[in-house]
Amino acid sequence: MTTIPAEWRPHKAIWTGWPSAADLWGEDLDPARAEVAAMIRALWDGGKGDKIRVLAHGREAEASAKLALGQAAEVIPGAFGDIWFRDTGPIFDSAGVAHGFQFNGWGGKYQLPHDDEVGARIALLAKADYRRHDFILEGGAIEMDGEGTLLTTRQCLLNPNRNAHWTEEGAEVALKRALGVEKVLWLDEGLLNDHTDGHIDNLARFVAPGKVVCQAPANRDDPNHDVLEEIALELGAMRDAKGRKLEVIRIPSVGLIEDEDGDAIPASHMNFLIGNSTVVVPIYSGSGDDAVNALAPLFPGRKVVGLSSHAILTGGGSFHCITQQEPA
């Protein structure tokens, strides 16, 4: 049966976008480009890691990307609204088919021209068959172990701003049919002030079959203290599609990170990306070293590096949000 390979399986390529819209990024455009470039170089790993394919929208962005990235990536002209390819790009299965979904700007919050074309565009560039499904789904809303288990949140998938009439049962039928999964595991809600309505890739990630990592509160003042504790307890009571009780590993959370208005923003070490030779972890605060050190033993044979993602987060996400892997 066709499956979606786990992220730690070998990649043919990783797709990402170059921050291109000055009107969206404002004064964070150049810092965001610098952070994206650092991520790409880490994943490329001097040619020993991943092949990185980067879409750049517009002549200035294309020239900027080529200058910044050199031989670390292939820069391809292509239109998109913004760089959140985890959500707008396709999900590739083990047969090389690119699965596309409806996209409505995270429940109508941020609808930009060309974002609903990204899935088909990447599939064409990848020379992959493209299969578009008739329901709304963002890639960051689901986490799969490659062995039949899918993890998600009710806050996002059952939100009436996505698929208005979905129930748990209806959602599971659609996900199993589209992605070949056997069992769906549900958490309740995500991080405070997360415009994605609780994407799982900010909360909990599979790192091996039967093994999932989530965050522990930084302290009592962590704005997500209660949610993070609840997530760990819920995961600990779950079994995957193979009947294994999940092994739950916790790493330190980011803690309180505020925007310029003093509001808590959904910064998370969980938004890491597993490359062929490198795992890139977003860091924002003094807990970065602790998080990287805690993750390192979970990825034998890979380097685990922490890179700043402050500027990317001003746009709403981090390294996992802006990438989509194409399995080998």
Rg (CA only): 18 Å
Order of helices and strands: EHHEHEHEEHHEEEHHEEEHEEEHEHE
SSE-based structural type: alpha/beta
Mean pLDDT: 96
User: What is the spatial order of strands in the main beta sheet?
Assistant: 3-2-1-16
What count of helical segments does DSSP give? 11
Shape: globular
Q: How many β-strands, per DSSP?
A: 16
Helix content: 25-40%
- Taken as a percent bin, the fraction of beta residues is 15-25%
Distance between the termini: 17 Å
Unreliable residue runs: none
Structural overview:
Strands 3-2-1-16 form a four-stranded mixed beta sheet. A three-stranded mixed beta sheet has the order 4-5-6. Strands 7-8-9 form a three-stranded mixed beta sheet, sandwiched between helices. The two termini are 17 Å apart. The longest helix is centred in the first third of the chain and has 16 residues. β13 and β14 form a beta hairpin. With 328 residues, the chain is of the alpha/beta class. The chain has eleven helices and 16 strands. The protein is 27% helix and 24% strand.
